[in-house]
């Protein structure tokens, strides 16, 4: 993950070197060589994904491509704030490592779950979660409002299973349990949110250079205080991704570039509005394609 970027572009290699120094171990070796079971640990996965994302953003910047707005899905909101100059890369890395560790500890293994509900209106998914929570006495809530046809739910295992069954009864095409290590973006993450609040309180954040969409509200944040509040509250709050995208469009966004591993957000954008143009950058090939796509869009 990120190896080709580091081999082809000095600024990407420098990004990985900065990450190694900030964290005190070789994250670059873990990204490039594994072992996969160590990379999958949440406290390693989160800084690894951020490093690849920041490396891709910096490579784009060297090619003259700078964002005028930013957004990130869950962990990605931290990378978006790094790009906006709100928080230093090193501080963000150490923060998300602590965030990942706290999330892992918040709920004992096997007690929490997440599921993706497909082809059911988000309001019906929310309704099913409320019914399941009332019936089981356990936590379950909409965690990711990703697109009109995809909502992820999160909470206690039995409650997620019950909500999934209710969603199917309400007409969902599928409800798929996700292979995650913890039930993110629900009330069970309160201990992790408190740790993130503590970590951020010790840092000095700046006002973002560009507006950044906040997962927890779906609106744009433009001050350090609002950014800090958004990064804290998103640990237990839902990722309102549709609202984030609509906020960017409302602010004039016409072309979206997803940076970092994968292109899940490009897929979600097509579900939200197929007319919007999206590109992704995760390696040299996708960079070339994105630059060509930007040239065509001008």
Short description:
By secondary structure, the protein is an alpha+beta fold.
Describe the structure.
The chain is of the alpha+beta class and 298 residues long. The chain has two domains: 3-106 and 188-235 and 243-297, Malonyl-Coenzyme A Acyl Carrier Protein, domain 2, CATH 3.40.366.10; 112-180, Malonyl-CoA ACP transacylase, ACP-binding (Alpha-Beta Plaits, 2-Layer Sandwich), CATH 3.30.70.250. It is built from 14 helices and eight strands. It has helices at 3-8, 10-23, 27-33, 36-39, 42-62, 76-83, 89-106, 122-136, 157-169, 190-201, 224-233, 241-250, 264-272, 284-297; strands at residues 112-118, 140-147, 150-156, 174-177, 212-213, 220-221, 255-259, 277-281. Helix 5 (42-62) packs antiparallel against helix 7 (89-106), helix 8 packs across helix 9 (157-169) and helix 10 runs antiparallel to helix 11.
What is the CATH topology classification name of the largest domain?
Malonyl-Coenzyme A Acyl Carrier Protein, domain 2
Helix percent reads: 40-55%
Identify low-pLDDT runs. none
What is the averaged pLDDT score? 96
Task: Using the coordinates above, name the CATH class of the largest domain.
Answer: Alpha Beta
Q: Separation of termini? A: 31 Å
Oligomer, anyone?
single chain
Strand residue content: 5-15%
**Total of DSSP H or I helical runs spanning 4+ residues:** 14
Instruction: Tally the structural domains.
Output: 2
Please state how the strands of the largest beta sheet are arranged side by side: 2-3-1-4
State the CATH architecture of the largest domain: 3-Layer(aba) Sandwich
Write down the Rg. 19 Å
> Structural class, from helix and strand content?
alpha+beta
Shape designation: globular
Give the full name of the CATH homologous superfamily of the largest domain. Answer: Malonyl-Coenzyme A Acyl Carrier Protein, domain 2
Biggest beta sheet attributes: 4 strands, antiparallel
Strand/helix succession: HHHHHHHEHEEHEHEEHHEHEH
Per DSSP E runs of 2 or more residues, the count of β-strands stands at 8
